[in-house]
Amino acid sequence: MSNDRIYANDQSPRAGDWRYAIVAARFNGFIVDRLLQGALQTLKACGAADESIGVYRVPGAFEIPLACQKLAQTGRFDAIIALGCVIRGDTPHFDYVCSESARGIAEVALKFDLPVINGILTTDNPAQAEARVDTSAGNNKGVDAARTAMEVLDVYARIGKGL
């Protein structure tokens, strides 16, 4: 991509002409939908065109890494944002889903030399999850994930230019 440094003096990210994929789980949709909304609003507010953003829904957090891998294989995206929410229950299932989704996302990023941003919330209860999508408090982790994607792309661009 032929972006100049995407940060202005105020350090506000700009989406540039990069292409973004967002993989969002449907499970715990009452939280994930708000993460997705925050990520989309942030990318668009920072200049991303609608056609530069693809949204892909999967059943749950465990399915996110494979969807990220399939998207990375296409070569159509410059960054992938993974959004999900896993809330602890009474069984060890929480631990398996959290660790395997995180491992899988990191593996895809390294394998494809591509920013794959882990925006999967892992909380002990619904109240903690709600607190992490509270836009009124300026605390939406979907916003943070989108900003992280833009920042990492900026770093990659500067590295490529030898800056």
Global mean pLDDT: 92
What's the gyration radius in Å?
15 Å
The tally of strands reads 6
Strand order of the largest sheet: 2-1-3-4
> Mind describing the biggest β-sheet?
4 strands, parallel
- What is the helical fraction, as a range of percent? 40-55%
- pLDDT < 50 stretches: 1-10
Q: How far apart lie the N and C ends?
A: 15 Å
As a percent range, the share of strand residues is 15-25%
Q: What is the chains' assembly state?
A: single chain
Number of helices: 5
Give the ordered list of helices and strands. EHEHEHEHEEH
Class by helix and strand content? alpha/beta
The coarse silhouette is globular
Structure characterization notes:
The protein has 163 residues and is of the alpha/beta class. It is built from five helices and six strands. The chain has helices at residues 29-45, 64-74, 93-112, 126-131, 141-160; strands at residues 20-25, 53-58, 79-87, 116-123, 133-134, 139-140. The protein has a four-stranded parallel beta sheet, with helices on both faces. A two-stranded antiparallel ribbon has the order 5-6. Helix 1 crosses helix 5 (141-160). The longest helix has 20 residues, at 93-112. The protein starts with 19 loop residues before the first strand and ends with a helix. The relative contact order is 0.21. The model is unreliable at 1-10 (pLDDT under 50).
